[in-house]
Amino acid sequence: MQSTLQKIEREFEAALASAGADPKVVDEVRVRYLGRKGEITGLMKQLRELPKDQRKEAGQAINRLKRSVQERLENAIAAASSAQRDAALAGERADVTLPPLRPWAGSLHPVTQTRRELERVFRDLGFTIEDGPEVEDDFHNFQALNMPPDHPARDATDTFYLADGNVLRTHTSPVQIRTMETRRPPIKMICPGRVYRRDLDATHLPMFHQLEALVVGEAVSMADLKGTLEALWTGFYGAEIRMRLRPGYFPFVEPGCEYDISCRVCGGDGCRVCKRSGWIELGGAGMVHPAVFEAVGIDPQRYSGFAFGLGIDRIAMMRHGIDDLRLLMENDVRFLRQFPEQP
Ligand code: PHE
């Protein structure tokens, strides 16, 4: 028995040595000696065949061998697994020379950027910034703006009506009325905001953004209107921009006009964007109608004023060369990422 044990121990040592630091091979050695059918496990079974008086001593010898084999295996397994981890870590070492991945912080929507830029120009011109409800009553959206219930101009706007008779405002002009109801002249205000019409194609959305401007005071004239528009567009686009007024009709202004600026793409020579005309239509304007002053209790004999509106989305599109209005509302980040904020 003694010699068998010595032989097994030598063989075990040789096997462990040749297993080296490979955890898989070390484990095979463990199974070969200590597994259910392993060599040392087998020795225990052989004990029964020994004469009674030798069993105790032989059993102790086998147990000693078993413990020492177990201990050496545990050490070998620990060494092998730490060697394996070191090798893995060495392979995973961070390459500090790689360029960093920059996290994308997000930015303001191009329409918001344009709105804020417009607000900046108006604030420099001394305007206040007002707000009004998007669900509007008939009086503010139509009637006070010189559109009584039977007025034909009401048919021209495709209005969203609510069950209670209110409307989603079809323009920002009702904020003119709300401002004049609560404040006395002199008034110099703008109101940017959402407006709603039943419309949907590449150049029209059911919701879009307008900016309203209103100036009321003594002896405010058409020249002031033109001068303000020119200051606005040169402030926004630069001194080379040209502007023109054309006659136009809106029930709440008299005289009324529409205004254009020279095309930013071709500089006025004519191109696809301006449909060869050299001019881009921006909005409506005019002198506040006396009926509007009467609706809010301002004396039209004493005061005069001008108002104009513009489409914010339209300006954002021109600014960035976007040709489909719908892109602005889909909020696809691949689109939005193209318009980081200007520092
Ligand atoms: N509210 C008009 C529109 O939506 C624009 C406008 C505003 C016209 C102010 C004249 C004066 O079309």
Looking at this protein, list some descriptive labels.
seven-stranded mixed sheet; 9 strands; binds phenylalanine; BirA Bifunctional Protein, domain 2; rod-shaped; 43% helix
Structure description:
The chain is α+β, with helices and mostly antiparallel strands and 343 residues long. It folds into 2 domains: 2-92; 110-336, Bira Bifunctional Protein, Domain 2 (BirA Bifunctional Protein, domain 2). Helix content is 43%, strand content 17%. It is built from 13 helices and 9 strands. It has helices at 2-19, 23-34, 39-46, 52-91, 110-124, 138-141, 153-156, 174-182, 222-237, 290-295, 312-320, 327-330, 333-336; strands at residues 128-129, 135-136, 167-168, 187-196, 207-217, 243-247, 253-262, 279-288, 304-311. The strands form 2 sheets. A 7-stranded mixed β-sheet has the order 1-4-5-9-8-7-6, with helices on both faces. A hairpin with a 5-residue loop joins β6 and β7 (253-262). The N and C termini lie far apart (88 Å). It binds phenylalanine. Phenylalanine (PHE) binds next to β8 and β9.
Gist of the model:
The chain is of the alpha+beta class.
Structural class: alpha+beta
- The CATH homologous superfamily of the largest domain is termed Bira Bifunctional Protein, Domain 2
The number of domains is 2
Number of helices: 13
Going across the biggest sheet, name each strand in turn. 1-4-5-9-8-7-6
Residue windows where pLDDT falls under 50 for at least 5 positions: none
Bound molecules: phenylalanine
Q: What is the CATH level 1 assignment of the largest domain?
A: Alpha Beta
CATH architecture of the largest domain: 2-Layer Sandwich
Mean pLDDT: 90
Helicity, in percent?
A: 40-55%
How far apart, in Å, are the first and last alpha carbons? 88 Å
Shape assignment = rod-shaped
Strand content: 15-25%
